[in-house]
Amino acid sequence: MTTDTDPVLAEDPITGEEIELPADVEVGEIIDSPVTGTELEVISLDPVTLEEAPELEEDWGE
Amino acid sequence: MRVGILYSRIRRDEKLLLEELRDRGHDVEKIDVRKQRFGLESTTADVADLDIVVDRCLSTSRSLYATKFLDSYGVPVVNSPETGDVCADKAKNSLALAEADVPTPATEVAFTKEAAMEAIEEFGYPCVLKPIVGSWGRLMAKIDTRSAAEAILEHKETLGHYEHKVFYVQEFVDKPGRDIRVVAVDGEPVAAMTRSSEHWLTNAAKGGTTESFDLDDRALELVERASEAVGGGMLGVDLMEVGGEGSGEYTVHEVNHTVEFKALTEASDVDVPARVVDWLETKAEAFAADGGDAGGDSDGDTNAADDSTDADEVVA
Protein backbone atom coordinates (compact mmCIF):
# COMPACT_ATOMS: atom_id res chain seq x y z
CA MET A 1 0.00 0.00 0.00
CA THR A 2 1.29 3.47 -0.86
CA THR A 3 0.54 6.72 0.86
CA ASP A 4 0.70 10.27 -0.48
CA THR A 5 3.99 10.79 1.30
CA ASP A 6 5.72 7.85 -0.36
CA PRO A 7 8.32 8.82 -2.90
CA VAL A 8 7.38 8.18 -6.51
CA LEU A 9 9.56 6.04 -8.74
CA ALA A 10 10.11 6.80 -12.40
CA GLU A 11 12.51 5.94 -15.16
CA ASP A 12 15.19 8.45 -16.06
CA PRO A 13 14.57 8.95 -19.81
CA ILE A 14 18.27 9.42 -20.53
CA THR A 15 19.90 6.64 -18.55
CA GLY A 16 16.97 4.27 -18.07
CA GLU A 17 17.74 4.10 -14.35
CA GLU A 18 14.97 4.18 -11.82
CA ILE A 19 14.90 7.45 -9.91
CA GLU A 20 12.99 8.66 -6.90
CA LEU A 21 10.76 11.74 -7.08
CA PRO A 22 9.05 13.59 -4.23
CA ALA A 23 5.57 12.35 -3.37
CA ASP A 24 3.99 15.70 -4.28
CA VAL A 25 5.45 15.81 -7.78
CA GLU A 26 3.37 17.79 -10.32
CA VAL A 27 2.80 17.53 -14.05
CA GLY A 28 4.99 20.19 -15.65
CA GLU A 29 7.45 20.16 -12.76
CA ILE A 30 11.11 20.42 -13.58
CA ILE A 31 13.44 18.21 -11.60
CA ASP A 32 17.15 17.61 -11.83
CA SER A 33 18.05 14.04 -12.69
CA PRO A 34 19.94 12.63 -9.69
CA VAL A 35 21.92 10.54 -12.17
CA THR A 36 23.05 13.05 -14.78
CA GLY A 37 21.91 16.41 -13.39
CA THR A 38 19.94 16.98 -16.58
CA GLU A 39 16.69 18.89 -16.21
CA LEU A 40 13.72 16.58 -16.60
CA GLU A 41 10.07 17.46 -16.98
CA VAL A 42 7.23 15.45 -15.48
CA ILE A 43 4.94 14.68 -18.42
CA SER A 44 2.30 12.57 -16.69
CA LEU A 45 1.57 11.17 -13.25
CA ASP A 46 -0.20 7.93 -14.00
CA PRO A 47 2.19 6.42 -14.79
CA VAL A 48 4.90 8.91 -13.90
CA THR A 49 6.69 9.73 -17.12
CA LEU A 50 9.69 11.98 -17.53
CA GLU A 51 11.19 13.66 -20.56
CA GLU A 52 14.25 15.79 -21.00
CA ALA A 53 13.09 19.37 -20.32
CA PRO A 54 13.21 21.91 -23.15
CA GLU A 55 16.40 23.96 -23.41
CA LEU A 56 16.21 27.43 -21.95
CA GLU A 57 15.40 29.92 -24.64
CA GLU A 58 16.57 33.46 -25.12
CA ASP A 59 13.42 35.10 -23.81
CA TRP A 60 13.08 32.90 -20.73
CA GLY A 61 13.49 34.49 -17.37
CA GLU A 62 11.61 36.49 -14.84
CA MET B 1 -11.77 30.83 -5.40
CA ARG B 2 -10.84 29.27 -8.73
CA VAL B 3 -7.34 30.25 -9.73
CA GLY B 4 -5.66 29.66 -13.07
CA ILE B 5 -1.90 29.34 -13.30
CA LEU B 6 -0.40 30.02 -16.73
CA TYR B 7 2.86 28.14 -17.00
CA SER B 8 5.15 26.03 -19.09
CA ARG B 9 7.50 24.98 -16.30
CA ILE B 10 6.69 24.25 -12.69
CA ARG B 11 9.70 25.50 -10.75
CA ARG B 12 10.10 25.73 -7.01
CA ASP B 13 8.34 29.13 -7.10
CA GLU B 14 5.25 27.71 -8.79
CA LYS B 15 5.22 24.72 -6.44
CA LEU B 16 5.23 27.00 -3.42
CA LEU B 17 2.37 28.98 -4.88
CA LEU B 18 0.36 25.87 -5.80
CA GLU B 19 0.92 24.43 -2.33
CA GLU B 20 -0.30 27.58 -0.62
CA LEU B 21 -3.35 27.89 -2.87
CA ARG B 22 -4.35 24.25 -2.33
CA ASP B 23 -3.71 24.43 1.42
CA ARG B 24 -6.24 27.23 1.57
CA GLY B 25 -8.77 25.15 -0.31
CA HIS B 26 -8.65 27.09 -3.56
CA ASP B 27 -9.44 25.27 -6.77
CA VAL B 28 -6.39 25.47 -9.04
CA GLU B 29 -6.50 25.14 -12.82
CA LYS B 30 -3.02 24.62 -14.23
CA ILE B 31 -2.84 25.97 -17.78
CA ASP B 32 0.18 24.73 -19.72
CA VAL B 33 0.40 27.35 -22.47
CA ARG B 34 2.30 24.95 -24.73
CA LYS B 35 -0.84 22.86 -25.08
CA GLN B 36 -3.30 25.67 -25.71
CA ARG B 37 -4.41 27.83 -28.58
CA PHE B 38 -5.62 31.39 -28.24
CA GLY B 39 -8.20 32.58 -30.77
CA LEU B 40 -9.70 35.97 -31.29
CA GLU B 41 -12.92 34.98 -29.54
CA SER B 42 -11.91 32.19 -27.20
CA THR B 43 -9.27 29.69 -26.20
CA THR B 44 -8.82 25.97 -25.76
CA ALA B 45 -7.66 26.70 -22.20
CA ASP B 46 -10.28 26.08 -19.54
CA VAL B 47 -10.67 29.63 -18.32
CA ALA B 48 -14.39 29.55 -17.65
CA ASP B 49 -15.33 30.68 -14.15
CA LEU B 50 -11.77 31.52 -13.15
CA ASP B 51 -11.72 34.21 -10.50
CA ILE B 52 -8.16 35.13 -11.33
CA VAL B 53 -5.31 33.88 -13.50
CA VAL B 54 -1.69 34.22 -12.43
CA ASP B 55 0.83 34.47 -15.22
CA ARG B 56 3.85 32.34 -14.37
CA CYS B 57 5.10 31.87 -17.94
CA LEU B 58 8.85 31.74 -18.01
CA SER B 59 8.98 32.80 -21.62
CA THR B 60 8.44 36.49 -22.20
CA SER B 61 6.67 36.06 -25.53
CA ARG B 62 4.32 33.41 -24.15
CA SER B 63 3.60 35.59 -21.15
CA LEU B 64 2.86 38.67 -23.23
CA TYR B 65 0.58 37.00 -25.77
CA ALA B 66 -1.24 34.63 -23.43
CA THR B 67 -2.09 37.39 -20.94
CA LYS B 68 -3.16 39.71 -23.76
CA PHE B 69 -5.55 37.10 -25.15
CA LEU B 70 -6.97 36.24 -21.72
CA ASP B 71 -7.45 39.91 -21.01
CA SER B 72 -9.32 40.29 -24.30
CA TYR B 73 -11.79 37.56 -23.20
CA GLY B 74 -12.38 39.48 -19.97
CA VAL B 75 -10.49 36.95 -17.82
CA PRO B 76 -8.94 38.67 -14.77
CA VAL B 77 -5.21 38.17 -15.15
CA VAL B 78 -2.22 39.24 -13.09
CA ASN B 79 0.09 40.68 -13.99
CA SER B 80 -1.77 42.63 -16.61
CA PRO B 81 -0.48 42.45 -20.19
CA GLU B 82 0.24 46.18 -19.97
CA THR B 83 2.53 45.69 -16.98
CA GLY B 84 4.16 42.74 -18.73
CA ASP B 85 4.74 44.76 -21.85
CA VAL B 86 6.58 47.49 -19.96
CA CYS B 87 8.56 45.16 -17.72
CA ALA B 88 9.59 42.67 -20.39
CA ASP B 89 11.44 45.29 -22.38
CA LYS B 90 14.30 47.08 -20.67
CA ALA B 91 13.94 50.16 -22.86
CA LYS B 92 10.23 50.53 -22.04
CA ASN B 93 11.04 49.79 -18.41
CA SER B 94 13.62 52.58 -18.27
CA LEU B 95 11.31 55.02 -20.01
CA ALA B 96 8.44 54.28 -17.62
CA LEU B 97 10.68 54.81 -14.60
CA ALA B 98 12.12 58.04 -16.00
CA GLU B 99 8.67 59.36 -16.92
CA ALA B 100 7.56 58.75 -13.34
CA ASP B 101 10.64 60.57 -12.01
CA VAL B 102 11.93 57.41 -10.37
CA PRO B 103 15.72 57.61 -10.26
CA THR B 104 17.11 55.13 -12.76
CA PRO B 105 20.54 54.76 -14.39
CA ALA B 106 21.25 56.95 -17.42
CA THR B 107 20.37 54.90 -20.47
CA GLU B 108 20.55 55.24 -24.23
CA VAL B 109 19.21 53.04 -27.00
CA ALA B 110 20.86 52.91 -30.42
CA PHE B 111 20.09 50.84 -33.49
CA THR B 112 23.44 50.53 -35.21
CA LYS B 113 26.81 49.61 -33.82
CA GLU B 114 28.18 52.99 -34.91
CA ALA B 115 25.53 54.87 -32.95
CA ALA B 116 25.96 52.47 -30.02
CA MET B 117 29.71 53.12 -30.05
CA GLU B 118 29.06 56.85 -29.85
CA ALA B 119 26.81 56.27 -26.83
CA ILE B 120 29.42 54.06 -25.18
CA GLU B 121 32.19 56.60 -25.73
CA GLU B 122 30.03 59.34 -24.26
CA PHE B 123 29.23 57.26 -21.19
CA GLY B 124 32.91 56.43 -20.83
CA TYR B 125 34.37 53.24 -19.40
CA PRO B 126 33.17 51.14 -17.76
CA CYS B 127 29.62 51.18 -18.99
CA VAL B 128 27.07 48.45 -19.47
CA LEU B 129 25.46 46.89 -22.53
CA LYS B 130 22.34 44.82 -21.94
CA PRO B 131 19.93 42.88 -24.12
CA ILE B 132 16.52 44.60 -24.11
CA VAL B 133 14.86 41.26 -23.31
CA GLY B 134 16.50 38.84 -20.93
CA SER B 135 16.94 37.80 -17.36
CA TRP B 136 19.22 36.21 -14.83
CA GLY B 137 22.13 38.40 -15.90
CA ARG B 138 22.46 36.67 -19.26
CA LEU B 139 24.32 38.45 -22.06
CA MET B 140 25.08 41.44 -19.88
CA ALA B 141 28.36 43.10 -20.69
CA LYS B 142 30.41 45.45 -18.58
CA ILE B 143 32.52 47.28 -21.13
CA ASP B 144 35.91 48.42 -19.93
CA THR B 145 37.62 49.49 -23.14
CA ARG B 146 36.89 50.66 -26.65
CA SER B 147 38.28 47.47 -28.14
CA ALA B 148 35.96 45.36 -25.97
CA ALA B 149 33.05 47.55 -27.06
CA GLU B 150 33.91 47.07 -30.73
CA ALA B 151 34.10 43.31 -30.34
CA ILE B 152 30.86 42.98 -28.41
CA LEU B 153 28.93 45.24 -30.76
CA GLU B 154 30.17 43.32 -33.79
CA HIS B 155 29.27 40.00 -32.20
CA LYS B 156 25.81 41.23 -31.31
CA GLU B 157 25.20 42.63 -34.77
CA THR B 158 26.46 39.51 -36.51
CA LEU B 159 25.16 36.74 -34.32
CA GLY B 160 22.26 38.23 -32.45
CA HIS B 161 18.56 37.91 -32.73
CA TYR B 162 17.06 41.08 -34.18
CA GLU B 163 16.37 42.30 -30.67
CA HIS B 164 20.12 42.27 -30.07
CA LYS B 165 20.40 44.93 -32.74
CA VAL B 166 18.65 47.26 -30.35
CA PHE B 167 21.65 48.34 -28.33
CA TYR B 168 20.75 49.26 -24.75
CA VAL B 169 23.64 51.14 -23.20
CA GLN B 170 23.64 52.15 -19.57
CA GLU B 171 25.89 53.98 -17.19
CA PHE B 172 27.82 51.71 -14.83
CA VAL B 173 26.55 52.20 -11.29
CA ASP B 174 29.32 51.57 -8.80
CA LYS B 175 27.18 49.67 -6.30
CA PRO B 176 28.61 48.44 -2.99
CA GLY B 177 28.97 44.81 -4.08
CA ARG B 178 25.26 44.25 -3.70
CA ASP B 179 21.91 45.23 -5.03
CA ILE B 180 18.46 44.98 -3.52
CA ARG B 181 15.56 42.87 -4.71
CA VAL B 182 12.12 43.74 -3.41
CA VAL B 183 9.07 41.64 -4.14
CA ALA B 184 6.06 43.90 -3.96
CA VAL B 185 2.35 43.55 -4.63
CA ASP B 186 0.81 46.70 -6.09
CA GLY B 187 3.63 48.71 -4.58
CA GLU B 188 3.50 47.20 -1.11
CA PRO B 189 6.67 45.28 -0.27
CA VAL B 190 6.28 41.63 0.67
CA ALA B 191 9.95 41.11 1.49
CA ALA B 192 13.36 42.38 0.43
CA MET B 193 16.84 40.99 0.23
CA THR B 194 20.30 42.01 -0.83
CA ARG B 195 22.15 40.03 -3.44
CA SER B 196 25.90 40.25 -2.97
CA SER B 197 28.81 39.12 -5.08
CA GLU B 198 32.43 39.90 -5.82
CA HIS B 199 31.32 39.90 -9.45
CA TRP B 200 29.65 43.00 -10.87
CA LEU B 201 26.56 40.87 -11.56
CA THR B 202 24.89 40.06 -8.25
CA ASN B 203 21.86 38.12 -9.51
CA ALA B 204 20.87 35.13 -7.39
CA ALA B 205 20.86 33.18 -10.68
CA LYS B 206 24.56 34.05 -11.05
CA GLY B 207 25.35 32.70 -7.61
CA GLY B 208 25.08 35.94 -5.64
CA THR B 209 24.55 35.41 -1.92
CA THR B 210 21.34 36.67 -0.41
CA GLU B 211 20.46 38.29 2.87
CA SER B 212 17.31 39.84 4.25
CA PHE B 213 17.11 43.64 3.92
CA ASP B 214 15.06 46.21 5.84
CA LEU B 215 13.68 48.88 3.57
CA ASP B 216 13.97 52.48 4.74
CA ASP B 217 11.40 55.15 3.95
CA ARG B 218 13.12 56.24 0.74
CA ALA B 219 13.28 52.67 -0.57
CA LEU B 220 9.63 52.12 0.34
CA GLU B 221 8.67 55.24 -1.55
CA LEU B 222 10.66 54.22 -4.62
CA VAL B 223 9.22 50.71 -4.66
CA GLU B 224 5.72 52.16 -4.57
CA ARG B 225 6.45 54.67 -7.32
CA ALA B 226 8.30 52.16 -9.51
CA SER B 227 5.40 49.73 -9.22
CA GLU B 228 2.93 52.41 -10.18
CA ALA B 229 5.14 53.50 -13.08
CA VAL B 230 4.90 50.09 -14.74
CA GLY B 231 1.20 49.54 -14.04
CA GLY B 232 1.27 47.66 -10.74
CA GLY B 233 0.98 43.96 -10.00
CA MET B 234 3.24 41.43 -8.36
CA LEU B 235 6.68 42.68 -9.16
CA GLY B 236 10.36 42.33 -8.44
CA VAL B 237 11.81 45.80 -8.02
CA ASP B 238 15.60 45.97 -8.26
CA LEU B 239 17.43 48.84 -6.59
CA MET B 240 21.07 49.76 -6.20
CA GLU B 241 22.48 51.92 -3.44
CA VAL B 242 24.18 54.92 -4.97
CA GLY B 243 26.76 56.53 -2.74
CA GLY B 244 27.56 53.30 -0.92
CA GLU B 245 26.02 50.81 1.44
CA GLY B 246 23.48 52.35 3.78
CA SER B 247 23.63 55.73 2.01
CA GLY B 248 19.84 55.75 1.81
CA GLU B 249 19.99 56.88 -1.81
CA TYR B 250 18.90 54.49 -4.51
CA THR B 251 18.49 54.05 -8.20
CA VAL B 252 15.92 51.63 -9.58
CA HIS B 253 17.43 49.78 -12.48
CA GLU B 254 14.67 47.34 -13.29
CA VAL B 255 11.20 46.09 -12.48
CA ASN B 256 10.46 42.41 -13.23
CA HIS B 257 6.96 41.12 -13.96
CA THR B 258 7.05 37.32 -13.45
CA VAL B 259 9.14 37.52 -10.36
CA GLU B 260 10.85 34.55 -8.76
CA PHE B 261 10.62 34.46 -5.00
CA LYS B 262 12.19 31.21 -3.83
CA ALA B 263 15.49 32.92 -2.97
CA LEU B 264 13.62 35.61 -1.08
CA THR B 265 11.60 33.01 0.79
CA GLU B 266 14.87 31.44 1.92
CA ALA B 267 16.58 34.76 2.72
CA SER B 268 13.79 36.36 4.74
CA ASP B 269 11.47 35.37 7.57
CA VAL B 270 8.49 36.28 5.45
CA ASP B 271 6.22 33.56 4.11
CA VAL B 272 6.28 35.00 0.60
CA PRO B 273 3.85 32.54 -1.05
CA ALA B 274 1.33 33.18 1.75
CA ARG B 275 1.57 36.92 1.24
CA VAL B 276 1.23 36.49 -2.51
CA VAL B 277 -1.90 34.38 -2.08
CA ASP B 278 -3.31 36.97 0.37
CA TRP B 279 -2.88 39.48 -2.41
CA LEU B 280 -4.41 37.19 -5.05
CA GLU B 281 -7.47 36.70 -2.85
CA THR B 282 -7.89 40.46 -2.46
CA LYS B 283 -7.29 40.98 -6.15
CA ALA B 284 -9.84 38.34 -7.16
CA GLU B 285 -12.43 39.95 -4.89
CA ALA B 286 -11.72 43.33 -6.43
CA PHE B 287 -12.00 41.90 -9.95
CA ALA B 288 -15.35 40.35 -9.05
CA ALA B 289 -16.59 43.62 -7.57
CA ASP B 290 -15.43 45.61 -10.61
CA GLY B 291 -16.68 43.16 -13.21
CA GLY B 292 -13.21 41.96 -14.12
CA ASP B 293 -11.41 45.26 -14.16
CA ALA B 294 -9.60 45.54 -10.86
CA GLY B 295 -7.00 48.10 -11.64
CA GLY B 296 -6.14 46.61 -15.01
CA ASP B 297 -6.96 47.96 -18.44
CA SER B 298 -9.29 45.18 -19.43
CA ASP B 299 -12.56 46.32 -20.91
CA GLY B 300 -14.26 44.08 -18.42
CA ASP B 301 -17.32 43.91 -20.63
CA THR B 302 -17.15 40.23 -21.49
CA ASN B 303 -17.21 37.23 -19.29
CA ALA B 304 -15.00 34.24 -19.91
CA ALA B 305 -17.70 31.85 -18.80
CA ASP B 306 -20.13 33.28 -21.32
CA ASP B 307 -17.65 33.41 -24.15
CA SER B 308 -15.88 30.12 -23.73
CA THR B 309 -16.58 27.62 -26.46
CA ASP B 310 -15.51 24.12 -27.31
CA ALA B 311 -11.96 23.70 -28.45
CA ASP B 312 -13.14 22.95 -31.97
CA GLU B 313 -14.63 26.38 -32.29
CA VAL B 314 -11.45 28.20 -31.42
CA VAL B 315 -9.89 30.32 -34.11
CA ALA B 316 -6.38 28.92 -34.22
Question: Key terms for this structure?
Answer:
heterodimer; A: 62 residues; mainly beta; Rubrerythrin, domain 2; 3-stranded antiparallel sheet; two-stranded antiparallel sheet; 5 strands; 0% helix; globular; B: 316 residues; alpha+beta; 5-stranded antiparallel sheet; 4-stranded parallel sheet; 22% strand; disordered C terminus; Lysine biosynthesis protein LysW (chain A); LysW (chain A)
Summarize the structure.
Chain A is 0% helix and 37% strand. With 62 residues, chain A is mainly β. The termini of chain A are far apart.
Structure description:
- The complex is a heterodimer of chains A (62) and B (316).
- By secondary structure, chain A is mostly beta strands.
- In chain A, 0% of the residues lie in helices and 37% in strands.
- With 316 residues, chain B is α+β, with helices and mostly antiparallel strands.
- Helices cover 34% and strands 22% of the residues of chain B.
- Chain B has ten helices and 13 strands.
- In chain B, helix 2 links the parallel strand 3 and strand 4.
- Chain B starts with a strand and ends in a 9-residue tail after the last helix.
- Chains A and B meet through loops of A and helix 1 of B.
* CATH class category of chain A: Mainly Beta
Rounded Rg of chain B: 20 Å
Which outline of chain B best applies? globular
Strand fraction band of chain B? 15-25%
| Overall 3D form of chain A | globular
SSE string of chain A, helices as H and strands as E? EEEEE
User: How many whole angstroms does the radius of gyration of chain A measure?
Assistant: 12 Å
Determine the fraction of residues in helical runs of chain B and give it as a percent range: 25-40%
Oligomer: heterodimer
Question: What is the CA–CA distance across the termini of chain A?
Answer: 41 Å
Given as residue ranges, the uncertain stretches of chain A (5+ residues, pLDDT < 50) are none
* Overall tally of domains of chain A: 1
Give the largest chain-chain interface (CB within 8 Å).
A-B, 15 and 26 residues
Give a short account of the largest sheet of chain A.
3 strands, antiparallel
Q: What amount of the residues of chain A lies in strands?
A: 35-45%
Helix amount of chain A: under 10%
- As for the CATH topology of chain A, it is Rubrerythrin, domain 2
Measured between the Cα atoms of the first and last residue of chain B, the distance is 29 Å
Any guess at the CATH architecture of chain A?
Single Sheet
User: Counting H and I runs of at least 4 residues, what is the number of helices of chain A?
Assistant: 0
* Structure class of chain B: alpha+beta
